[in-house]
Amino acid sequence: MQARQQQMYTCVSATVSDMHTAGEPLRIIEKVTPDPLLLSQRTSLLALRRHLSDNCDWLRRFVVLEPRGHADMYAAYLIRPACHPQADVSVLFLHNDGYSTMCGHAVIALAKYGASRGLVEATPPRTTVNIECPCGLVQAAYHHGDEDNPDSSSFISVPAFLDATYNNFTVQLEDQSSKQFTELTLNFDLAYGGAYYVILPARQLGLDIQTDAVDSLIRICQQLKAAISSRVDVSRNELLCPDLAFIYGVILTDGRDGELESDNLCVFADGEVDRSPTGSGVTARVAAQAAKGQVRQDGVWRTFRNSKTGSVMLGRLAEEVDAASGTVRVEVSGRAFFTGSGVLTAETGDPMLPGFRVK
After folding, report:
1. Which residue of the set 11, 56, 83, 103 is catalytic?
2. 38, 102, 177, 352 - which has most CB atoms within 10 Å?
3. Could you give the domains of the chain?
4. Family per UniProt (predicted)?
């Protein structure tokens, strides 16, 4: 079996461009040999996502995991021609544990990539790039910048909403050193910004997102996500198809909801820590704040800062989509930078294929 698996990867190569948005890495997969989607039915992007997950997960492991990537690597697999008739490109998002439904930092990077690398015709000072994500069509824009103004990217989210606010929700969390369980009573928001997030102030957990060690934050967020996921069924929401109905991450905040500046830290997938303020997380936070009357459609940008790196994104309420369901669209802005490019290869006989994680 091992020999057959190695033979399968003997001729693999992937052409990639690397970027970062507000510190969070993005590996853009431009071309793969052999093409993992060659024999797939391109009925929809979600169908391709299922095909990649079920039949060709070797690509994610090859590109994202060690020794070519790392535990916090994030990738975007470009699919052209796009599945959606109005999209310039479709994209699948890959992380350390699988496939996400939306990624704001990736969309911000892809807007710059699209305008800079000929994915679309550049039309300074603003180039529009329509990107189909698993959660839906997202209109992104690259703002070219000049001598007086730095470049940036922005996007208008898919319909976002506050799913529910949970009060007096009890969870048991294990202390790593004592192995004893502590019962906590929490109040948190469950909000959707293209992906589902649990959002709560870190102080409820006795944590400080500025000073506490990242390992401690990861451990508690992972326990919290598992506890809430086991008791809260997000598939009940009729606004979403089953492929989108799962809790993706936990966002710990400084508690300054609705203020002009706020810090947060997002732990998603299998303990992956976002170095940026999390684009879809900003969307979810603004949607939750709008539902509570903490923000209005007033054109005012609010600053969201990553508590560890200090990097920023801006977010504002762009549109109220449907008053009955409380859905809104959020505009998110940030800056992305190219960091490298190359070809990832697999040498015959490499025993570390297709990739691994050290935990």
Report:
1. 103
2. 102
3. 2-151+338-345 (3.10.310.10), 161-334 (3.10.310.10)
4. Belongs to the proline racemase family.
